[in-house]
Amino acid sequence: MTLRVVSFVASFVFHSYIFLVTFCVLQFSVQLPHLPYEVLCELVPGFKLTCAMSFFSLIVWVALYWQIAPILWELASLEGRPTQQARQPTKKPNPARASAASYSGRSLSFRRGFPVRSLSSNSTTHVNVHDSTEDPNPLFILGITEAEGCFDIPIMNSKTIKTGFSIVCRFRVSLNHKDSCLLYMLKVYFKCGNIGKVDKKGCLTWEVKDLKSIHSKITPFFLRNRVRDTMYLDFLSFVKGVEMVANKQHLTAEGVYSLRAIAQAMNTGRETPEGYRPEHTVPSSSNYIPLDPNDNSGFVTGDGCFSLIVKNDSPHFGRAYFAIDQATTNRPLLESMLPLLGLPGQTLRPNGPDNLRISTQNRATIIEVILPFFEKYPLYGAKRIALMKLTAVLGLIESSIPKDSKQLRWTPELKAKVKAIWSD
Ligand SMILES: [Ca+2]
User: Fold this and answer.
1) Which residue, 236, 246, 78, 50, is CA-closest to 167?
2) Which of 48, 69, 90, 231 has its CA 20 to 30 A from that of 309?
3) Domain residue spans in the chain?
4) Where are the beta strands (DSSP E) in 197-335?
């Protein structure tokens, strides 16, 4: 935001300067300085027009700049200039401190090259928030879609279309604005779609609505990489809708009627049969596709949660927590995740009437199972930063336990260190 304001002010000053120079040159060109504007307009041919044009171009430029600049910066960052921070070698030998020191800024936009201490293998690895030099794994993209994506067919009233309705097939992914880098990653990966503005809930949406991109990029991708559970039914309805729109059936009254029926029975309007599982997710089926760990990472990037208790007076200060929350309709997907994450003995816990939860707050499980999993199948964006902070905190806790007692004693200094890492 600061960069945006600074460059905006700089650009404004620059354009005002150009405007003034034009004004002065015109004055000196008739060798009659300090004349009133009305007199200049009469003396200098085209003076009024020149002033109006300069002012208009300034206004247009300011408007465009305010809209386009953030996109250009973020795209430029996606091209991958290593930041000052990434170029600096890590000086501190303590693994927890090294990890903690590697993220000193609050913005997570495209900082790259974090040294992260592996608690499991006792080695330091180099991980990236997002490396634009290589495409993300398609199954990671599948996982994000399963967590935060949506296929739908919005139908709007229209006065210009003969049937009275405008119908589009839309694919979108909504994420917290802190994860805007992931939406740009999707935009760059699919080479289509638009990212809107941050909404009231602080979310940003990348959406694809043009039929050509949907037909040539989106549906083929999800035919190759199939979503699971009830979302698969929504995808099948979506494909049917796309075919109808491609065949121009949406321009006939019968087509509108059929598409409306399809659209209303999708997503929240769907009545899913109890225990529904698509064939490709049933282990005994010949078409079975096992859940991929990268799919799991994509899903956790969207719907996972890493947290830490940092309330000074809490008896559980320093307790780490990992959870995935999901609607009960996605029970099979959560069940497939448990063994993949290395938590085969765990059961799904109800979280309210319509949600289920995978969770663990056991420090040893998080250190020995969860962290190594996401080290192998990396997360991106805000969840990655949270995971790295948790890694640093757990490293600090482990190194603070006296060897003889095995019991951690929380000193005010240690609490302050943990809070500093977590709130960074
Ligand atoms: Ca979700």
Assistant:
1) 246
2) 90
3) 2-78, 138-280, 293-423
4) 203-208, 304-308, 320-327
| Angle, alpha carbons 77-78-81 (nearest 5°) | 50
Tens of pLDDT, residues 164-196 = 999 999 999 999 999 999 999 999 999 999 999
Q: What is the pLDDT of residues 316-363, one digit of tens each?
A: 999 999 999 998 888 889 989 999 998 877 888 898 888 999 999 989
In CATH, the number for domain 293-423 is 3.10.28.10
CATH topology of domain 138-280: Endonuclease I-creI (3.10.28)
Cα–ligand 1 centroid distance for 326 (angstroms): 7
Q: Measured between alpha carbons, how far is 366 from 320 in angstroms, rounded to an integer?
A: 8
Cα of 260 from ligand 1 centre, angstroms: 25
**How far away, in angstroms, is 333 Cα from ligand 1 center?**
13
Q: How far apart are the CA of 359 and the centre of ligand 1, in A?
A: 16
Name the amino acid, one letter, at 48.
K
Residue type, 150: C
Domains 138-280 and 293-423 share a fold: yes
Number of other CB atoms surrounding residue 403 within 10 Å: 5
Give me ligand 1 centre to Cα 223, in Å.
21
How far apart, in whole angstroms, are the C-alpha atoms of residue 214 and residue 167? Answer: 14
Sign of the alpha-carbon dihedral angle for 420, 421, 422, 424 = positive
Q: What is the 3-state secondary structure (H, E, C) of 397-416?
A: HHHHCCCCCCCCCCCHHHHH
Instruction: Give the DSSP letter of residue 273.
Output: P
Q: Where are the alpha helices (DSSP H) in 320-370?
A: 331-341, 363-365
Query: For the chain, what's the residue count?
Result: 424
> Which letter does DSSP use for residue 191 in this model?
T
